[in-house]
Design a protein that fits this description.
Its EC number is 3.5.4.19, 3.6.1.31, 1.1.1.23. The protein is α/β, with parallel strands linked by helices. The chain contains 26 helices and 31 strands. The strands form 7 sheets. Strands 1-2-3-4-5-6-7-8 form an 8-stranded parallel barrel. Strands 17-28-27-26-29-30 form a 6-stranded parallel β-sheet, with helices on both faces.
Length: 837
């Protein structure tokens, strides 16, 4: 319930009686902007306007709409005026001026008319009064439920020397009721955001003093008048008074300063604020007095970083799917948004004022997104070629086209990968990498808390690893041991231990020998599936190559623990430590090193688009001096199958890749198959998919995957080489005879009994492979990935005689006389310098 008086201001200046929380201005058609300024920028003020025009034109209605859209809560109009504006303005936002009792939601009576004796408490009833009315008559109106409308110059904040004016306190006192023996009024003190600060008591005198001074003044039951903060310095500025629905509780709305409301120096008598209020307080405190190394202070000082983080968090919120993820990302966005607000002295109260104003709008924009965001969405939709929605009850099957009847463009579209928004992703990754680079362990722990939802004491787990960290079943341990040994054998066979020496000319001996890269980082992703097999595929070749330090990086679970299988592999290969982090922050930590994380010379391992972007970023930074294995994208498989292939085998290979993630891609090239034969594969896909725990992921992956029917095997291999798949599976007759046709692929699985799963785990080949078409120019991880190759040469007297003239001639052509001279001096001293040199 509002303060029971509505001051009428003859001019559109700042309301001097703002303590009542409402003001009335006359709208004459020429003062729209002035009223808007008051409505928008005066906190905790409800603005009313009285329609004071002779004729209501379309222009006047448009100005009224502008007033409503900028926070004016109601217009006082005659019933005749109301009928004209009602077409565009809701009835609930009109206060009707009437001389008789009518059923209006909000009504303003003219004094002298027949006023109802009782008023429905759900109706707001104003009454225009003149200065001839006595204070006792006014108070009688207030007690009856009316809110007097009185010219502002007839009202005063004073209560003793009133000079013929009406004291504001005399309007609220008749409304307050109390059942206390001492006659004091229960008073709830709140801040401008309606956050409770404490419960106190008021008296007629304390209320009068509070209104007069514009400060928080209350009635102590022991010490009399209590001027809040007079001795402690925690003063209050009074914004307004309000009443509850039963008028038995007064609410004082204040701006609190100092250490807080409570004598215990807490924000309120109910303890300190939490949530947004606590965050706001911290941000404003950091702005004036930030501790050393404060990230918030860094945001205040670096506008571009702050803006980038807001955009980053907005995108992450838009991408979040679960309730927990949305809440987490929204909290991050609020933090950075409020940091920007605090930087420019914008408070929560200012934001809430704008929210309230938006709620009062009567004109609504269409609400479409800005063109640049629409364009982004359209480009994404365009990249998702042939994608369709597969509902939970729909059949799961691949899209299908026939290369013989489809256009070249349609076939190529089916082989397009989903577009990676590289620039957008890099703009999100760069601040993360820079943060870790600048702040080390501190940033790593903060980012792990943010992205992995876990608070850690240390970002690194060092060897030796405790047995309870790698507790796995004997069955699983045996499986890892078998895989370990097969991977070791195959990669050991690749290890070039012998020095390659070639005599290129008589007396000229050129050699090449391998040396291990000293410190290597093995990134083992978490994501939608735990991948301990990746730890084997990366660390066993590193072990074989002879790397001195092997560093693992893998995100912890929400319990703060690592996957025990990964710890077991780390123990088995002698890894120095495990960085307990994932994503771009883990890559950055290994690339640059931190207080705890050793700097690595090269980083290997698959990951999502953020990991790939971070790897590309650090590899291009000369300050990092860190190489990477290869770029990577979503996992993929291409199966070439002929009519002799078992549909269940084909379906199982497609699904084993589809379960990796919704952005994975599976392609089936069906060679000379009939519709019925392809249908049998689709049926097997649907049947087997429903039995998989990750069927929801499979459903989304299959939606943008395709079967392409081709006529011949030659056509299929030509298409496959152009696509350059990560995994190529040959389910065709005499499959081994067709392997020479393969030019571009990460790894090939030959024959019906060679599923991709075997290469992923235990056959011995490596499953860290080039994706996204990079198989055209990159190899998968192998022993040489963890080595560098050094060349050497020995030139004898005979050799110098044979190649010396050629060296001098080429150096002379290039204008490098020092190079030429290095050979000439030697040949001259040996008496071998040819004539003319």
């Amino acid at each position: 319930m509002v303060f029971p008086v509505l001051p009428l201001y003859e001019s559109t200046g700042k309301p001097l009686l703002s303590v009542v929380g409402q003001a009335l201005y006359r709208f004459n058609g020429s003062n729209t902007d002035a009223i808007v300024q008051i409505s928008k920028y005066t906190p905790n003020l409800n603005v009313f306007v009285e329609l004071a025009v002779n004729e209501i034109s379309d222009a006047i209605v448009e100005q009224l709409l502008s007033l409503y859209n900028n926070g004016v809560c109601s217009v006082l109009a005659t019933p005749e005026q109301g009928s004209v504006i009602l077409e565009k303005i809701p009835n609930a936002r009109i206060t009707y001026k009437a001389s008789e009792n009518k059923q209006y939601q909000s009504i303003a009576y003219v004094l002298g008319s027949s006023l109802p004796q009782t008023i429905d408490e759900k109706i707001t009833a104003f009454v225009y009064v003149e200065d001839t009315l006595s204070l006792e008559e006014l108070q009688k109106l207030v007690k009856s439920g009316y809110i007097p409308i009185i010219k502002s110059d007839l009202l005063t904040n004073e209560y003793e020397d009133v000079k013929g004016q009406y004291p504001l306190v005399d309007f609220i006192i008749p409304k307050i009721v109390t059942d206390r023996a001492d006659g004091l009024y229960t008073t709830l003190v709140v801040d401008s955001s309606n956050q409770s600060l404490g419960l106190v008591y008021s008296s007629v005198t304390s209320i009068s003093e509070s209104i007069r001074t514009g400060t928080g003044v209350y009635q102590s039951r022991k010490h009399g008048l209590w001027y809040k903060g007079k001795t402690s310095g925690a003063t209050q500025k009074l914004i307004s008074f309000d009443l509850d629905c039963d008028s038995d509780c007064l609410k004082a709305i204040v701006e609190q300063s100092g250490s807080g409301f409570c004598h215990l120096s807490t924000n309120s008598c109910f303890g300190n604020f939490t949530g947004l209020k606590a965050l706001e307080a911290t941000l404003f405190q950091r702005k004036t007095d930030a501790p050393e190394g404060s990230y918030t202070k860094r945001l205040f000082d670096d506008e571009s970083l702050l803006n980038a983080k807001i955009k980053e968090e907005a995108e992450e919120l838009a991408d979040a799917k679960t309730k927990e993820e949305i809440a987490w990302e929204a909290a991050d966005l609020f933090y950075f948004a409020l940091a920007r607000c605090a930087k420019y002295n914008v408070t929560l109260a200012d934001i809430e004022k704008n929210l309230d104003m938006k709620a009062l709008k009567v004109s609504r924009r269409k609400g479409d997104a800005k063109p640049k965001f629409i364009e982004k969405k359209q480009s994404t939709e365009k990249s998702e070629i042939n994608e369709r929605h597969i509902g939970p009850d729909d059949k799961i099957y691949l899209n299908r086209i026939n290369a013989a009847t489809a256009s070249k463009e349609e076939v190529e579209a089916c082989l397009e990968r989903p577009i990676q928004k590289s620039a957008d992703i890099m703009s999100l990754v760069t601040p993360i990498v820079e943060n870790v680079k600048a702040n080390g362990d501190k940033a790593l722990l903060e980012l792990t808390a943010k992205f992995d939802r876990v608070q850690l004491d240390s970002p690194v787990l060092f060897a030796p690893y405790k047995p309870d960290m790698m507790q796995i079943s004997e069955k699983l341990k045996k499986a890892i041991d078998v895989s370990f040994e097969n991977i070791r054998i195959f990669h050991e066979a690749q290890n070039q231990k012998d020095i390659l020496t070639v005599e290129t000319s008589p007396g000229v001996y050129c050699s090449r020998f391998a040396r291990p890269i000293e410190k290597v980082g093995c990134y083992i992703p978490g994501g939608t599936a735990v991948l301990p097999s990746t730890s084997l595929m990366l660390s066993v070749p590193a072990l074989v190559a002879g790397c001195k330090e092997i560093i693992f990086a893998s995100p912890p679970g929400k319990d703060g623990k690592l996957t025990p299988e990964v710890v077991y592999v780390a123990h088995k290969v002698g890894a120095k430590c495990i960085v307990m982090a994932g994503g771009a922050q883990a890559v950055a930590a290994m690339a640059y090193g931190t207080e705890s994380v050793p700097k690595c010379d090269k980083i290997m391992g698959p990951g999502n688009q953020f990991v790939t972007a971070a790897k590309m970023l650090v590899s291009n930074d000369s300050n990092a001096l860190c190489a990477i294995d290869m770029p990577a994208g979503p996992s993929e498989v291409l199966v070439i199958a002929d009519k002799h292939a078992d549909p269940d085998f084909v379906a199982s290979d497609l699904l084993s890749q589809a379960e990796h993630g919704i952005d994975s891609q599976v392609i089936l090239l069906a060679v000379d198959m009939t519709d019925a034969e392809v249908d049998s594969i689709d049926e097997a896909v649907h049947r087997q998919a429903l039995a998989l725990p990750r069927v929801d992921i499979v459903r989304k992956c299959i939606a943008h995957s395709t079967t392409i029917v081709v006529k011949t095997l030659d056509e299929a291999f030509e298409m496959s080489n152009k696509y350059a798949p990560e995994h190529l599976i040959l389910q065709i007759e005499n499959a081994e005879e067709w392997v020479p046709k393969v030019d571009n692929a990460g790894s090939v699985f030959v024959g019906a009994l060679s599923p991709e799963s075997c290469g992923d785990y235990s056959s011995g080949t490596n499953h860290t492979l080039p994706t996204y078409g990079y198989a055209r120019m990159y190899s998968g991880v192998n022993t040489a990935t963890f080595q560098k190759f050094i060349t050497s040469q020995v030139v004898t007297r005979e050799g110098l005689k044979n190649i010396g003239p050629a060296v001098m001639d080429l150096a002379e052509v290039e204008g490098l006389d020092g190079h030429r001279n290095a050979v000439r001096v030697r040949m001259d001293k040996l008496g071998m310098l040819p004539e003319g040199y």
